[in-house]
């Protein structure tokens, strides 16, 4: 089973940061910032590194949830660990696989082309903040 991680990063207005993927699975679609764990790496270490690599900022993660997604590949499901947290520094894409970033509100989610199960995860996240 592949293990990946994702960062739910909010701005001051409560909108979530999404990156437009420039290569690989989901190229041209929006996703949470994140990536695959290296062998022996913790999800927390991986998300700190992925945020730094992809958008050039520091990230202090707090565990949010974990799920298994069989939709991406039914023969090899993906385990995903999601974190929330704040970033420090100015976003800098550099040579990242992310080509553009936007902050999206809950209302924006239905009109954006979002990869994997990130739309559903974010809808659940926004709903959990209302309770």
Alpha-beta content class: alpha+beta
Number of E strands: 7
Q: What count of helical segments does DSSP give? A: 2
CA radius of gyration is: 14 Å
The largest sheet, given as strand count, sense and whether it forms a barrel, is: 4 strands, mixed
| First-last Cα distance | 33 Å
**What's the overall geometry?**
globular
Give the integer mean of the pLDDT values.
Answer: 93
Q: Helicity, in percent?
A: 10-25%
**Fraction in beta strands:** 35-45%
Q: How are strands sequenced across the largest beta sheet?
A: 4-1-6-5
Name the poorly predicted regions: none
The secondary-structure element order is: EEEEHEEEH
